[in-house]
Hints:
Blueprint: H1 7-24, H2 28-34, H3 39-47, H4 66-79, H5 81-100, H6 103-114, E1 120-123, E2 139-143, E3 146-157, E4 164-170, E5 180-186, E6 192-197, E7 208-219, E8 223-224, H7 230-266, E9 268-269, E10 272-273, H8 278-306, H9 313-338, H10 349-359, H11 366-380
Parallel strand pairs: 1-4
Antiparallel strand pairs: 2-3, 3-7, 4-5, 5-8, 6-7, 9-10
Amino acid sequence: MEYFLSEQQKTIRSLARKIAEERILPVRAELDEKEEFPWAIIRDLAASDMFRVFIPEEYDGLGGGCLDLCLVVEELSRVCSSVAISYAAVDLGIIPLLEYGTEEQKRKYLPDVAAGKRLAAFAITEPMAGSDASAIRTTAERVKGGYLLNGTKQFITNGGEAELYTVIALTDKTRGARGASALLVEKDTPGFSFGKKERKLGIRASSTRELIFQNCFVPEENIIGREGMGFIVTMRLFDKSRPGIGAQAVGLAQGALEAATDYARERVQFGHPIFSLQAVQHMLADMVIQVEAARALVYATARTVDSGAKDVSGESAMAKVFASDMAMKVTTDAVQILGGAGYMRDYPVEKMMRDAKITQIYEGTNQILRNVIAIELRKRKGRRD
Length: 385
């Protein structure tokens, strides 16, 4: 399919693919087995200016948008979703800063992020607040010169590895969701520590940890926007980040499709490669249709985000839901085509199937996002603009 990418976008995609095939592919099984954060590859990505892709030029970036990020995430996910999400979570962590930060905040933090010197993370999920983000209990009490942060965040991607965290906490408990605010917290801040590193079904090389705040002082200049904007910041963040999850799903499904196709060409049964069996042909045909359809939706949504459109909640949710459901089906079908071999760790498709599951869960479960899509549909009364 021709997506009419710019020359810069083609270069970015080509470089991401080169890194994926030359640096990630040889070690992906080892990273998954050892559950090690891929620091060596993160440094390669930084040296190749991949973290500059989503940073504006005035802060030492390349000025790329949502589509540029999706191109990188897709190529990395085609080989290893753990690396891809470790990379993409940095963008997740700084979108609030890009959208609502002060000029001083941006100049202080963004150049280091662009250079890969600081990774970032976003923290809203808590033990009692998952899909119901309004149930957060972490508080940021106003004190002289700043805030005292207390509480625990759970399942935070890049937790323990990132140097900069955007944390959503209650600055006014009496106002519920309207009392939440966004704060920038640096890793070495006194009172900020990390809990256990989670052991996961998939994306095992990605670090997922608890964040623990015990009278952690955050200076007032580290608030993003103003008090009470936390959930506005969060919703705007997810509108911009969900296409990236769609791109992750497309990339890993593409990798599974390629692995299944190669195996079907080589595996001989009944005297012929199994590719000659119509049952297998139809499975592969359905897989490629689904991958291409999801890619088209993700790219179109990313372009809509980059256009500056104000209301993209429905589109972003659709891209994430459709692509992640597709990835789960395509990777499962890839395992089926490989048969017994697909169930073994000697082949990559079992890892891809495990990795695909999380795309249906994080940044809004697909069940919750179907509610979002329906609400947007009701607002628009079913009409196309």
